[in-house]
């Protein structure tokens, strides 16, 4: 059972992943669940449940580890899960990115965050290309990380997003289309926007992406991505 299968199984059975990170130099991935349980997914296929895990969670993965499950799982009788992967484009504002990731997981979505994925010998652009087929939506976190202006025009200095953010935004627009890309814009008044993408929908937020939760959820809902309003 690989990592993606574990994520899907948890989602189908009502568990919410609040945080995900690679451990022991990539030997396994730790999934922290709401409620305090921990699921460790090893590259060998072994799954280890820790923390305040209830019997349902332990039974869910018991057969995968060569043990007999104490209770039947819901996995055998359910259809394949819908695609709820959301690609997250981000710059240097780590607290904003962490807050966005937590919010998306709270909505039972699966954030695809580039630096959390194994490189497998790929360059950054190769890693991007191999990931682009997975998401059903993209959220671009445009934060004022850089400053810029035309040469010899210091008086035109403005805040702007990182160049990698603009590049990945363009790639997602080409892959998913404008309706499936949302741009969360921090410091909307002082931020420069690339001229080629004027007219796109920008959602302003102040301290963290949860400020934009309602509008972002509406945009996702228009694309058939259901969001539990109680989790906003």
CATH superfamily of the largest domain: Toll/interleukin-1 receptor homology (TIR) domain
Order of helices and strands: HEEEEHEHEHEEEHEEH
CATH architecture of the largest domain: 3-Layer(aba) Sandwich
Number of domains: 2
Radius of gyration: 20 Å
SSE topology sketch:
Layout: H1 3-12, E1 17-23, E2 28-33, E3 37-42, E4 47-51, H2 55-62, E5 85-89, H3 94-106, E6 110-112, H4 124-131, E7 137-142, E8 146-148, E9 158-160, H5 163-176, E10 181-186, E11 202-205, H6 213-222
Parallel strand pairs: 5-6, 5-7, 7-10, 10-11
Antiparallel strand pairs: 1-2, 2-3, 3-4, 8-9
Concise structural overview:
This protein has helices spanning 3-12, 55-62, 94-106, 124-131, 163-176, 213-222, and strands at 17-23, 28-33, 37-42, 47-51, 85-89, 110-112, 137-142, 146-148, 158-160, 181-186, 202-205.
Describe this protein with a few key phrases.
11 strands, 27% helix, five-stranded parallel sheet, 232 residues, Rossmann fold, TATA-Binding Protein, alpha/beta
Describe what this molecule looks like in 3D.
It contains 6 helices and 11 strands. With 232 residues, the protein is an alpha/beta fold. The strands form 3 sheets. A 5-stranded parallel beta sheet has the order 6-5-7-10-11. The radius of gyration is 20 Å and the shape is globular.
């Amino acid at each position: 059972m690989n990592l993606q299968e574990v994520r899907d199984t948890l989602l189908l059975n009502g568990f919410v992943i609040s945080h995900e990170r690679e451990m022991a130099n990539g030997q396994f991935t730790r999934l922290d669940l709401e409620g305090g349980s921990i699921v460790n997914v090893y590259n060998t296929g072994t799954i280890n449940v820790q923390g305040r895990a209830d019997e349902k969670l332990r039974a869910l993965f018991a057969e995968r580890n060569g043990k007999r499950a104490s209770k039947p799982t819901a996995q055998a009788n359910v259809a394949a899960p819908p695609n709820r992967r959301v690609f997250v484009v981000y710059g240097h504002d780590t607290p904003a990115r962490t807050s966005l990731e937590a919010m998306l997981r709270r909505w039972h979505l699966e954030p695809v965050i580039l630096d959390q994925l194994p490189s497998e010998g790929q360059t950054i652009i190769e890693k991007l290309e191999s990931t682009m087929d997975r998401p059903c939506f993209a959220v671009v976190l445009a934060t004022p990380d850089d400053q810029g202006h035309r040469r010899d025009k210091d008086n035109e200095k403005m805040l702007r997003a990182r160049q990698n953010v603009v590049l990945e935004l363009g790639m997602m627009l080409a892959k998913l289309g404008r309706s499936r890309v949302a741009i969360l814009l921090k410091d909307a008044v002082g931020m420069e926007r690339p001229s080629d993408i004027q007219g796109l929908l920008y959602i302003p937020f102040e301290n963290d992406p949860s400020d934009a939760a309602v509008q972002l959820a509406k945009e996702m809902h228009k694309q058939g991505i259901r969001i539990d309003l109680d989790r906003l």
